[in-house]
Amino acid sequence: MEKGVLKAEGGMDGLAWNVVGHTYVPKLLTDDAFVWHATIPDGTFVPPHIHPTQDEWVYMLDGELEIEFPDEHGKAGPGDTIRMPRGIAHGIFNRSGKTAVCIFGVSPARKLYELFTELDGVTDPAELVRLSALREVNFLPPPDAA
To answer: What's the pTM?
Structure first.
């Protein structure tokens, strides 16, 4: 990690990614942790998935997000922290009517930074699932339409 101040409007190396309609701006990367700022528009979501090798968290700055675990659903607003332990399926949804702004982090960093670089602008769901599986993020199959 480089020392110093990374200004609010900047990302590492000037990067910002469009991942599933969200804007992700990388802020910190070490072997132990990866942290990014996220702007999540209303009506967007990250489908249920599992990080088998990482713990993940979200600290809410503005707006509201819903988190769905297989056995529990919750809502988080400004100042709240969402905790998603490794190996537990979770989906993140913005159904609030306004944009949500938050800070995400994972520990250890593993391959998520590389995944976001690859997913920037990807719109095909099958390609998103394929690339994610190569970088240790496993999306769950959609529920039966029956």
So the answer is: 0.93
